[in-house]
Amino acid sequence: MSTGLRRFREPRPSPAPVAGERCEMCAEPIDARHGHVVNVESRALLCACRSCYLLFTVPGAAQGRFLAVPDRYLYAPDFMLSAAEWDELQIPVRMAFFFHNSALGRTVAFYPSPAGATESELPLPTWDRVMAANPGLADAAPDVEALLVDRRPGGFVCHLVPIDACYELVGLVRSRWKGFDGGQEVWQAIDAFFEELRARSREVRAGHG
Ligand SMILES: [Zn+2]
Ligand SMILES: [Zn+2]
Hints:
Layout: H1 3-9, E1 35-39, E2 45-48, H2 50-55, E3 66-68, E4 74-76, H3 83-89, E5 95-101, E6 106-113, E7 116-120, H4 124-133, E8 145-152, E9 155-162, H5 163-176, H6 184-200, E10 202-203
Parallel strand pairs: 4-10
Antiparallel strand pairs: 1-2, 1-3, 4-9, 5-6, 5-8, 6-7, 8-9
Helix pairs in contact: 5-6
One zinc ion binds next to helix 2.
């Protein structure tokens, strides 16, 4: 049999669902690329099929208990944050994410660590000052969008991202961190994560005018 013909007879690699991956709302099988829904009370992130995802893009669906995570990626190269403000935020690693938790009625801060997403107590006056300097990033949707800040040698970089992107970074750090400083492999993976984020983001201005 010619290899050309054989190619037609072989089943095509389909974007088949990864074994066991199912919509966590209706149990429909889903493929690796799927949307997520946040349970606002428990903070759980649920994998969702297209129909369930779309259902929860409607404001007020399920009395607002579940919210679909949007697909908006912004990058603000002019993000303003001073080293002194970063110290006040008391983040022990080079990156952290901030989002408005509507169940608590305030902004919360988390950073990725070998133990998973770790909360850092956020001094709200400091955060209010940071947001006043960056009004272009003030419209992040509560619960489902976050500001992801990364400290680089040249200054701070900020992305506005869907909350599931933050948990992807958390998973990456948790699964690849080794020893005291994480090891080379995890930091290469973190750099690659931010490069990919940058590439898919639309550039916006964070500051005034
Ligand atoms: Zn579903
Ligand atoms: Zn998922």
